Amino acid sequence: MPTKIMIVDDEEDITLVFKMGLEESGFEVDIFNDPVNALKNFKPRYYDLLLLDIKMPKMNGCELYDKLIQVDAQLKVLFITAFETDYQTLHEQYPLLPRDPFIRKPIEIDDLVSRINYELR
């Protein structure tokens, strides 16, 4: 059964490139460019990993994560960001996150695949 990934990023070009690259590597990928729409269409215990952009309009990635873990507490997540982030504050707020839950944009697909495989092992 393929690994299922949900990507939420307000930049359509990012989600399309990630989707194509990850599907070529054998992943099953659902993409959303609107975090509100992603929340409405979320399926509990369906996704193996979420990739959430931190800075989005309407709802940022951390706010979306807050809502999604109320529905599925077992979620694994990596945050996508092109910006500096206060790691200490984020870890205090979300102690169950991986040690380094960030993927920096831009990222090569091979590096993204490696990082996903590392988080899911």
Sum up the structure in keywords.
121 residues; alpha/beta; Rossmann fold; 5-stranded parallel beta sheet; 5 helices; globular
What topology emerges from the helices and strands here?
Layout: E1 4-8, H1 12-24, E2 28-32, H2 35-41, E3 49-53, H3 61-71, E4 77-81, H4 87-93, E5 102-104, H5 109-120
Parallel strand pairs: 1-2, 1-3, 3-4, 4-5
Helix pairs in contact: 1-5
Class inferred from helices and paired strands: alpha/beta
Question: Count of DSSP E strands?
Answer: 5
N/C terminus separation: 15 Å
Query: Could you give a short account of the major beta sheet?
Result: 5 strands, parallel
Return residue spans where pLDDT drops below 50 for at least 5 consecutive residues: none
What fold name goes in the CATH topology slot?
Answer: Rossmann fold
The helix count comes to 5
Order of helices and strands: EHEHEHEHEH
Rg measurement, Å: 13 Å
Strand order of the largest sheet: 2-1-3-4-5
Structural domain tally = 1
